[in-house]
Each structure stands twice: as structure tokens, then as C-alpha cells.
């Protein structure tokens, strides 16, 4: 018996609803069935995938049968052929040489940078003075990724670089879901702004590459140093353009997603006073991060390991507002999955945003309850909770992202609480390349009295 259900609405109605409200569309499709046909062309049928078992087939068991397709094509306009956009053997090759950057010992070494950069931000915040949280988190995570991955200081250029990332994200999102993709050469206002933003980011990237070639010993233990040391099968070093593509990938995928999740975390903490109190109890019990004589922060990684409830706050935030709100795949050929047949060139939309809101799995799924992670993830189906994707294309930097988010929240929440500037109403999710708070969020920092 087939597990494919037909959506009751027409193809045209589905298209316009998705364009207007993609998250609402995917939420409406969730109760219809495990696999929902959107009544699109028989030559390129489209399905919404709601079943963890089918998701595991697509992302893990049969991942070689699928490509990212259209989404990769659009994102490659900005980041080229990097890890996020490359396919098949190219992706496997890139993942092999990039994986050492995220080994445990490397992750541990990044912890001090995260705390140091966060304390710089904390020193700039003024009690009672509103701050644009999206901009603040974007600039913070940009500084962290530049130092930890590229050994590059971007303090003077943070605002300009973060604004450039913002332009590329908005233009890419607009293009991915547009029925017609205009070439970048067409001088529309959007394309002109997009190309200008790319040039801004490339200037930083190529300056860093040149500096690393001049002083390779200084960059030896960074992503940039690793890329410069990587050799092709021929024995030749990889080309500067490939280094550029990987650095652009890390810039966009490595900080914008975390920044968006952090804004949601501050908003949820404000709306969940009991959660915030428990978070503060944990932070006050552990005490403040202490700076040593050499400027390093004592046991920053050990502190991350001790922040148990803070980690659950991040996990719960990622459940409710996963940055990767939709995962797109296209079948290379005819495919059989769990007894159902899918033709070649079928498109599949997987929405962690909708699947994470399954009451049957989570119980009161709309509620912000970090303690639901007390028991770990073992009691849930494998792909009932998957904020970092899964399979061979799962996020390579997931451990770094968790460390970064946990230490940022722990460091700032120890010193401040944040409340929304009145008049903004409830935060509304905006489904761009990653999930952000629409129009950002202005919040007021309130300094806490903490013990040393």
C-alpha cells in the first residue's frame, strides 16, 4: 500500500501559498501524510517528505541517488563550488580534506576565541541602551569565524562584511524560490547589489589568502593553512579559486546560521522566564570566565562541557527555529523507497521546521521546554530532530556551531538579560536561506549583578 498522499489543493494554489508563506504551507502539509505529492508535472514531480523513515532513506541509505540540484545552483552564484554546493565525488573529496578542521582538538582550541570575542561585545553593550540583535550576533559570529578559521581580524570591517553577507542571503533566497532565474549578468538592482556584496567578501578572502602565503607558519593551524597545504591527486596545490570557494562557504554557512539561531534564543529566553531563571542558576553556579595572564580564557572548552542546561537551551531553540528550515533534494534516477516508486528528476522538500513540531513525538511541541533534552535524543526517531541535517551532507561544522552558540549564550547571559523594545509585537520567522526573525529584533540589555 502506497504511503504517498495527494495534497487536496491545486497546483496553482500550492505555488502561490508556498511563495507567500512557505513555513505555513509546509506545516499544513505535515498532517496529510508521510509523503505528500504536490500535483506538479509528471516529468518533475514534487513531494513534501514528513516521515523520519523516508528522510533517512533520502539523506542516509540512498543518498547517492540524490543531488541538491536547484538550491546548489543558486548558492553557487555566491560561494562557487564549495562544500555546501558541490555534488557527488567532488563533495566527497572536499569533505575529506576539510574534516580535520573540525576534529575535537581543533574544536577545543576555538573555545577561547569564542569567549574572547563575546566578551568584547559584552564590554560594548550599555545597560538600558537598545541593540539590533541580528546585527550584533552577525558581527559577533563573523568575527569568530574569521579568527578561528582564517586567523584574520575583521574588527574594523565587521559591519560592512556582515551587511554584504545579508545581501547575498536575501538575494539567494529570492532566487531559489523564483519560477524564473535570471543570469547574474542581467543588471537588475538585485543582481547589481549581489555582485557588489560578493566583491566585498572576496576582497577579505583574497587578502587573507595572500597574507597566508606570505606567512604560512602563522596560518598553519587554521582552515586557511590547511587549504594551502592541500594537494590535488596530481600533487599540485589546490587553486586559489577553490580556496576562495571554501572560505566563502564557511563565511556564509558558518556564521549566518548561528547568528540567526542566537537571535531566536534571546527572544525565547525573554518569553520563557522560568527557563531564563534556570539558565542563570547554572551560570551563577559555575561563575564567570576568567582571563589568564597570557590573555587566554581558562578552560573555555571545559566550561562548554559544564554548561549542560545552556546546551539544552540551544538544542530546544534549534528544534523550534532550525536555521536549515528546508532541505531540498532531487533524484538522479528512478528510485524505490520503502515500497513506493519515484520517477527520475523527482524533487523532495524536507522541512525540519515542520517535523520538529510533531506533537506525537515531542508532546506540546510548540512550547519552549529545554528540559525535554534531559534524556538525550535516544527516545526519538533518528530524523524526528535533525537541525544539522544528516548523512554524508550533514553539517560538517555542527560541533563547532554548538560550542559557539552555547559559549556565546553562557557568556552574555551571565552578564545581561535582554528584553524586546516595546511595539515590535511577536517575532515572525522569515524563511530565507536560513530561518531568521523578520525585520530583526531590537532588544534592551539589562546588566545583571553577578558574583566574581
Automatic annotation (TrEMBL):
The keyword Metal-binding applies. Belongs to the cytochrome P450 family. It comes from Paenibacillus solisilvae. Keywords: Heme, Iron, Metal-binding, Monooxygenase, Oxidoreductase. This is Cytochrome P450. The keyword Metal-binding applies.
Amino acid at each position: 500500500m502506497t504511503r504517498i498522499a495527494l495534497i487536496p489543493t491545486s497546483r496553482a494554489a500550492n505555488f502561490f501559498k508556498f511563495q507567500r508563506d512557505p513555513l505555513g504551507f509546509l506545516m499544513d502539509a505535515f498532517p496529510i501524510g508521510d509523503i505528500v505529492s504536490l500535483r506538479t508535472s509528471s516529468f518533475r514531480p514534487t513531494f513534501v517528505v514528513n516521515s523520519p523513515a523516508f528522510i533517512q532513506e533520502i539523506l542516509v541509505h540512498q543518498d547517492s541517488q540524490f543531488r541538491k540540484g536547484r538550491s546548489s545552483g543558486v548558492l553557487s552564484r555566491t560561494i562557487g563550488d564549495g562544500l555546501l554546493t558541490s555534488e557527488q565525488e567532488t563533495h566527497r573529496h572536499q569533505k575529506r580534506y576539510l574534516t580535520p578542521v573540525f576534529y575535537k582538538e581543533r574544536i577545543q582550541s576555538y573555545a577561547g576565541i569564542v569567549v574572547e570575542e563575546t566578551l568584547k561585545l559584552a564590554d560594548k553593550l550599555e545597560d538600558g541602551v537598545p541593540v539590533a540583535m541580528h546585527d550584533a550576533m552577525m558581527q559577533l559570529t563573523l568575527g569568530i569565524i574569521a579568527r578561528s578559521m582564517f586567523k584574520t581580524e575583521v574588527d574594523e570591517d565587521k559591519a560592512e562584511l556582515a551587511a554584504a553577507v545579508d545581501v547575498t542571503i536575501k538575494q539567494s533566497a529570492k532566487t531559489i524560490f523564483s519560477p524564473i532565474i535570471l543570469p547574474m549578468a542581467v543588471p537588475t538592482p538585485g543582481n547589481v547589489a549581489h555582485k557588489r556584496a560578493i566583491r566585498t567578501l572576496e576582497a577579505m578572502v583574497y587578502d587573507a589568502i595572500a597574507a597566508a602565503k606570505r606567512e604560512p607558519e602563522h596560518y598553519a593551524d587554521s582552515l586557511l593553512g590547511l587549504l594551502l597545504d592541500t594537494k590535488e591527486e596530481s600533487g599540485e596545490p589546490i587553486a586559489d579559486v577553490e580556496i576562495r570557494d571554501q572560505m566563502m562557504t564557511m563565511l556564509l554557512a558558518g556564521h549566518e546560521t548561528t547568528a540567526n539561531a542566537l537571535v531566536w534564543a534571546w527572544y525565547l529566553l525573554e518569553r520563557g522566564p522560568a527557563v531564563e531563571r534556570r539558565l542563570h542558576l547554572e551560570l551563577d553556579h559555575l561563575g564567570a570566565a576568567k582571563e589568564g595572564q597570557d590573555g587566554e580564557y581558562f578552560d573555555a572548552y571545559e566550561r562548554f562541557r559544564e554548561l549542560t542546561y545552556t546546551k539544552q537551551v540551544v538544542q530546544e531553540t534549534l528544534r523550534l527555529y532550525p536555521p536549515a528550515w528546508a532541505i531540498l533534494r532531487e533524484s538522479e534516477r528512478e528510485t524505490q523507497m520503502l515500497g513506493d516508486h519515484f520517477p527520475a528528476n523527482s524533487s523532495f522538500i524536507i522541512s525540519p521546521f515542520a517535523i520538529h513540531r510533531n506533537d506525537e513525538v515531542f508532546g506540546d511541541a510548540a512550547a519552549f521546554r529545554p528540559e525535554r533534552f534531559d534524556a538525550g535524543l535516544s527516545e526519538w526517531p533518528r530524523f524526528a530532530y535533525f537541525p544539522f541535517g544528516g548523512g554524508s551532507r550533514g553539517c560538517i561544522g555542527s560541533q563547532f556551531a554548538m560550542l559557539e552558540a552555547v559559549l556565546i549564550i553562557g557568556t552574555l547571559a551571565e552578564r545581561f538579560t535582554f528584553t524586546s523594545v516595546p511595539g515590535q509585537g511577536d517575532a515572525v520567522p522569515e524563511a530565507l536561506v536560513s530561518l531568521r526573525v523578520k525585520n530583526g529584533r531590537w532588544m534592551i540589555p539589562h546588566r545583571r549583578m553577578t558574583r566574581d
